[in-house]
Specification:
The protein is mainly α. The chain has three helices and no strands. The longest helix is centred in the middle third of the chain and has 28 residues.
Amino acid sequence: MPDMSASASLAMTHLVPLAAEVDEDKVTPGVLGFIVFAVMAVAVWGLMKSMNRHMGKVDFEEDKDPKGDASDKKAGSGGKASPAKG
């Protein structure tokens, strides 16, 4: 089995020139930025899942308006339907 420290040092010698090409003034989000983004994504996913569960519990049936029944019958006789007031 080859010596791991030798291969690691060989890899480092090839990466050192690449590191010298990196602009010192350039700012990148790095690992901390990724972790913050991942936590926010998981939080949004959890909130959406919770909202979906709560919306599934809602049972809404609109009561028929007694005044609306008469206007619906008139609208069906060929007249124009007027918007409901109130």
